[in-house]
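Appendix B. Raw example, untouched.
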Amino acid sequence: MTPGAPDAGRLLPAGLLGRFRARAAGYDAANTFFTEDFAELEAAGYLRQLVDTPPGDAGGMAGAAAAQRLLAAAAPATALGVNMHLVWTAVAGLLADRGDTSLHGVLADAGRGEVFAFGVSEPGNDAVLFDSLTRVDRLPDGGFSFTGTKVFTSLSPVWTRLGIFGKLEGRDGDDVILHAFVPRGTPGVEIVEDWNPLGMRATQSSTTRLSGVRVPEDAVFRRVPVGPNADLLVFGIFAAFESLIAAVYLGIADRALDLAAHALTRRRSMVADRPLADDPVLRNTLAAAAMQRTAAEAELRAVVQDLDARSDLGSAWFPRLVTLKTHAVEAAVAATGTALHVGGGSGFSADSEAVRLHRDALAGQFHPSTEESARATVATALLGPPST
């Protein structure tokens, strides 16, 4: 059975999860947004969960991770899509819990039904939050103009507030990154309907083009220097994103292991005249994947508990977070691969759940931090930066 905290079960009763699972294959096949799922999640108050139960003493991060894991076991793309909204509310809550109320407006707006999305990822920008290819120009009225291309903008059909960032060049090389939110319908924001990926199709994470998007000066909520820095916003985004992404991929692993166990108990060997569940090689294969899931689960529980507890780990947070995300994705890929392996030839059908889950799991390698970046972070924590 998929683990889940009591609050997760309250937000996601069995009947609701059943409807999500029944619709997931159709969304995937048609490459369409999870419209019905989204409407039901809104009605259930799911998007407000980190407003109602914020990070900190209330246990908001642990609760959100458990809920996202439960949702992902039923409908991975639905979970990944709504994850982007939850990340922004988690960031706002994590900052507030640490005395920074600069994103209080996010929590207030989310409580009123606004839907937040990330316009952060850029093609060719492997610096992620520490630099930007989006150009920011200062306007005569004191505002700013943003021009650039954002990719993987999940919730493209429904977001109402888009978080964007870009680089404003300084006169003496003191470049700064500006963060702001823009409402849907802002002139110059173009959603390009180009989403046609291998997996996680229902997220509809389309490209977004910013062409001279005007942002008033008072809409800029953060200015940080270019390059690695210890700004609390950077920590908040990193911590919320990596932990909630890990929860989604662990949910995929949960469902894949359930499918694999069911297949082994259902199938028989004609030669050995016994259930495949008695085959020692296949039992070992399933156990290995389950052990990977269990290890990543322990990491996730510890990370979200420490986030809620405001544990001060300093720079040690970053290698820990990238390791969690990497291990959760590896667990999902291993579990879905195992489900395919033990499921028999019929499970190789393009419309089988195991195949869909495997395609969804493969998407994990494209979320920051990539495996290469994660290992570089861990190596730097142990050895310092490379000399050349």
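End of appendix B.
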